[in-house]
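Supplementary notes for students who missed Thursday's class. We covered one full example, reproduced here. Read the sequence, then the structure, then the short commentary at the end.
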Amino acid sequence: MAASYSIRPAVASDAAFLADVTLAATRAQGRLAADFDETAWHAGFVEWSLESIDDPSTELNVVEVDDRPAGRLRISRTPAAVELNGIQLHPDVQNRGIGTAIITELQSEAGTRGVPLELHVERDNPDARRLYERLGFHKTGADGAEDIMQWTSGTQLWNAEVARRYDTPGTGMFAPEVLGPTVDRLAELADGGRALEFAIGTGRVAVPLSERGVPVSGVELSTAMLAELRTKVDEAAIPVVVGDMSVVRAAGEFSLVYLVFNTISNLLTQEQQVACFRNAARHLTPGGCFVIELWVPELRRLPPGTPATVGVAEPGYILLDTYDVLNQHVVSHHFHFGEGTRAELGRSPHRYIWPAELDLMGQLAGFTLESRHADWHGAPFTTESPSHISVYRLTMEA
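Structure (token representation):
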């Protein structure tokens, strides 16, 4: 857990401190040249900080820890992105989770807006690069001695066009034989209490579960998907918090938190997936359940030297999955086509999780595995099962 911190706008009297903390952080990283002119640099940085404080296009902040200045944070916001222009923490407060917490909050903001979070990192700063990669950033370009890195949220995948086409009443995952057993099992596990759905989407499961008499709330990153849900039920019937399911908090306590249809794999780092378990635990009463529906990675179908598998091949649709087995990433390529020569391609990235790894994530958050079945009907889970329904029980002490 991160140390307690606060962020406030910088004022002119902070300029010298902002230069001091940037210098201290850079020196601790061993990145100052032997001929570095500290006096000239400090004076120039103070002048530049004063200009930034007066610049309406950027936001210069002081990070405070224990009510004392401890860091510098500069952010720019444009219609196209949230830009992290700089973050430096004094060495005395580093390695306390503060930087990670600040970046995670910015990811949640960017995700809510449906734009990427972008930053620049010096090529001679490998520690910062490792942190950003661990938090799901990927290199997208270069600018002089810096690399441009970007984190992209699911809101750009689950946009208005996708949301409008998502519901297929009566067929596919909306078919009664699919949806009925799902709702039956979740209602049983709620056991008369309240339920919270992470990544509630258009309400495929939440709406019929609510109609069963289970009070349902939700968390959803995509405002486009939420808009479709609101055509079915209002906020009073199913309240929803907009944000990242690994960090955002819904009001109240619940006897059941659930994540269906492989959605935990939309979190692209192990750290985010562990955070999702911990966030579920924060919402549950002791003894409550966290239910995950997830596919089993199909690496046995991957021939040596071939990075892709065909998941589906049917009239009008082909699914091709490409694997990065080093980072446990898979990108699903969805090809939709008709009778002509044109095809429409959509891509969705995932981080796949082995069942044993999922169980360890549960243990880290205070859960024990109660059951694992191959489907919502309760069929036995075997080595040939393509997916699983895993029920985790929060320990009474948690």
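Commentary. Residues 38-53 form the longest helix (16 residues). The chain has ten helices and 18 strands. If anything here is unclear, bring it to office hours.
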